[in-house]
Structure formats: C-alpha cells, structure tokens
Amino acid sequence: MEKGALYDTASINKALQRGAMIRTSNPDSSYRYFNQALKGSYAINYDHGVVSSFTEIGKWYYNRNLSLAIRNARKALEEYQLRKLSDNTLKNQAYLLLAKSYDASAVLDSAAYYYYHINEEIEKGNIKDPGLEIQLYSTLAVFWLNNSSYVDVEYAQPVKYFISKAQQALTRLPAKPGTYAELYRLQALYYCSIANFDSARYFFNKNLQLLANNPGYSPNLPIILLNLSNSYIMEKRPAEAKFYIDSVMRLNHAHLLEERLQITANLQLAMVYYQQKKYANCISVLDDTWRRFDMNFLNKDVIDAYKIYGDSYEALGLTDKAIACKNKYIELYDSFATRDKLNMMSKIESRYRLSEKDKKLAEQNLQISKAENNARQKSLWVIAISLLAIVGFIISALWLRANRHKQRLLAYRFEKQMEISRLTYTIAGEEKERNRIARELHDGIGGLLAAAKINLDLVKKEYHFNNESNFIEVMQLVDQAASDLRKTAHNMMPEILMQDGLVKALEQFCNSIASKNTTHIYFEVIGTNIKLKSELELSLYRIVQELVHNIIKHSRATEAFIQISFSEDELNISVEDNGIGISSENKKGLGIKSIQDRVKALNGNISIESGYARGTNIYINIALQKENIETI
Questions:
Q1: Which residue of 294, 329, 469, 562 pairs with 306 in a disulfide if CB–CB is 3.0 to 4.6 A?
Q2: Cβ neighbours around 70 below 10 Å, total
Q3: This model's pTM is above 0.70
C-alpha cells in the first residue's frame, strides 16, 4: 500500500476537513492532505471526494496562482458532469471559486456569470447550505466595495443588502467563534463602504479579541490586520497604518503569509511611505515587489501603486521614469474600468433594486390572496345560513367582482410603476456613470495632459526648440487633445445646464452643433421659461441631445427646428427636420428605444411622424407636477 494513501471515504473526508482547517496556518501540510484525498478518491472511485479535492486544491491556489485556481475549479466541474452528480452545493462551491478567481483576474464578465448562477440557485431554493450563501453574499459585498468609485450611504445600499442576506444565513448556523467572526467582518465591511472607519475598526478589533479569547480558533489574522491598516490609509493616517503593516510583516518573516497577502502588504507599505513623502522608500518597496512576485492579478491596489510610483519619481525629479509609470497607470486603469465592468456593476445594482421590489410585491400578493380567501369563506357561510343569504351572496359576489376589477387595475398600475421605477434607476445609473467618467476625464487624464504640457514647455525652454517644427506639432497635438477632452467632459455633464438651466443649455448646444455642421438648426422657446428640478432638466437635455445627434448623423437634413413650449401644467418639445425620414426598422432601433424609455420614465408621451423623403417630426409631452418645478 502506498505510504500516506487513503482508501475509505471517512479518511478522505477527514483529510479534506483537516486540510481546510490548516490552509492558512500550515499551507504545505494542507496541500499534502488535499492531494492525498484526491489520490484516494480516484483509487476507490469516490465521486464526491474527487470533485471536493479539486475544489479545495483550487482554493489553496487562490492566493498563490489564479491560473491554477481556475484550472482546478474547471477540473472539479468536469468531474462533476462526467460522474453525473446532483449535489448543487458541491457544484456551486466550484462556481464560487471560479467567480472569485475571475474577479481577482479582472475577467469580470466571467465572474458575473458565475455569481449570477449561484444567486439564482439560492433564490430558487436549490441550495440549502447557509455556509455557501454566506460565502456568496460576503464575496459580492467585498466585490462591490472594491470596485465602487463612490463612498456614500446611497451607493453602499447594495453592500448593505448583500450583508443582510449573509446575516440571515448566519442565523441558521450554530453559534460559535467562526459565526461571530463572520458577523463582525460583515459589519466592518458595511462601515468601510460608507467611510465610517472608526466603526469599521471597532468590528475588526472584535475579531482580534475573538482570536485572543479562543486559542483553538484561527481566523485569517493577516487579512484582519491588512483591513485595519487600509482603514488608516484611507483616512491618510500613515503612522497608525504602519503599525499594523509591521505586524503583518512579522508574520511574513515567520513564513505564515501567502504570496498575494505579501503583495498587498507591500503595496500598503508603499502607500504609507508615499503619504509620509518618503518617496525613495516608496519606490524601493515597489521595485522589490515587482522583482520578487509574479503579478498574476489586477485590482485597484495594483493600479494605484503605479500612480504613486509615477508621483514619487516626479517628486524626485526623475521625469522619464515618472512618465513611464503614469503611462502604465493609464493603461491599467483603462483595462480595469472597461465597459463590461460598468455593465456588470449596473446589473448587480439593478438586481439588488429589483430584489427589494420583488419582495414588496410578494408581500402585497400574499395580502391580496388572504383577503380573497376570507371573502370566499364568508360567502359560503352566508349561503349555508338561509335563503336570505342568497341575496347577500349575490350582493357579495357583485362586490367581489368590482373589488377584483379594482385590484386588477391597481396591479396594472403597480406594474407600470415598477417599469417606470426600473427605467428611472437605469437612467439614474447611466447619468451617475456619465458624471463619474466626466470627472475622471477632466481631473485625471486632463491633469496628466496639463502636466505633459508643462513638461514640454520646460523641454522647449531648456533645449531651445522654438523653431523645431516637429516639436511645435507635438505641442499643438497636446493642446488639441486637452481641448477635445474638455469638450467631451463638457458634453457628458454640461456645466451650463446646472448653472443657467435647460433653455440656455439647449440653446448653446444647438448653436454649437450648427456651427460645426451643414445642417441649419433653429431653436425657439414659447411661453414663460419655468425652472424645473435638475433631474428632470437633465433627462430632457439628454432626450433633445440624442434627437439632434440623430438628425446630424442619419437624416441628411439641411434644416432642423427645435421648439420648447411651456404652459402652466405641461411642457411640449417638438423636433422636426426635412431629411430622408426614419424607416420602420430604425423606429425599433436602440437609439429611438432609449429616447422612448427616457420619456416613459418621466411619465410622458412621445409620437413620431415620418416617411421616406418627407422628413421627421417628433413630439414629446411632459405633464408638469408641483414636485417637478424648482421653488426659489
């Protein structure tokens, strides 16, 4: 018999449990346990053991080599299908490992696919394992927190929702140190998401107390310490942060730190030195990190490291290295903030919003169902009393019929309101993202272009390039790029709309578009200009902006007419052109559909009159309620 081999299911399961318990404290022994369990499972054809072993080996690789973590998770799923197993928890453990690994690798479409799959299985009741639910919702909370550009109470609502789902699952587990530790961790994550770092640190320290009071319990101490140090870094308190980083480094010297946690500790230490303006130390730590480790993952810490890398070189006067690092930062930032990521974040937030509304709808349906059952029982009871009850029954039946009609009408209105709410959340999310990107363009890349212009001016003065045509052309290109960037940021979030209102913003927009194109655009206002709420004005501005862009791009029109008409209780918008018209297929296109959705979200009406070579007339009507009008 092979030394260390396992040939029964009990010893295989015990090896898997033992390996999981010491995965952090004794990784080498943990890996040996998992491999013994895998060999033993193959030897006795233990299906559950084969799949579990590959999953546990994948978890072991998660903080060491993401490619191997993904490979082992996929192998677990291949074996699951080959052996025709039906244990949903077993399958979804591998799915969760894939989701986390793809998330850490910045392959966010794949991560979203597996996150959604597990969530749907839980919602359908196909998974009864509270431990897996806790892992999923905790991971989603961390995912949202790590990928959010905002830190405020409103944007943290999905984090709060995921944490509440995890806490509900925690109540189904026995009370023990691990249960309390996860509860404290979840509370700390929520407070981090709303920038309440004192409260977050309180719960992280509760975990440290739990470790001190329960010697037999071994939570992931380095992660707790790194969370504490990061909370001080976020508040720009580097001295306090370094205390916890030093504690992590001592664990590293004792060979108790996984590679990915070593990288995180180094990046935090570099940030501490940067905040302390010890730029040479910051560069030294980052140089050592890139030299020692294979960076097989991408997250905000890695991207931000290149930014402080460049800033530190710039502070020391090493311009060439500063530019190289900042270019790398821009490249990584662009690859991380992809359209796929934005779409996925929007989907996760939408899923959170809809889950809340579905819950309320289910509660209302339950109440309606109870009311209908009570009414039926009362009707039957009346019939059984006497013949006189027949009259009562008829009256009750008529009442019920009217009541059901009323309920159907209310349900229809509720459904419409749900649809409008979904559209409103979607549009609000889009506008929030436009605003964020506009700020990023203006403050981030705009700042870099400004810095590049300053450096080029210095080079021109130092090397006397005043008459060098190539150098002058480079300067002109930088100026043009900065100008185009400002125009793009302005179009995404026009300042004049916020300062002077809808009419002035549209008038300027139409004049600007007309000056750059052959189409003559006439803008007219009828009635007294009414100052509307900023959200409504922004939506109306986007609608007219999209319609005018469609005219310029597709209509081949020589003239266009935009009219806004104000009255006491409604606002009318007319957009007309003398172009080639809109075909029936184009009326169903994404551009028109987007405009129709925006109008519907405003409780408005839109009509389109068009024919081939007869131009296009679009009329929009919005009812003005008191809550739409801005009061002075």
A1: 329
A2: 22
A3: no
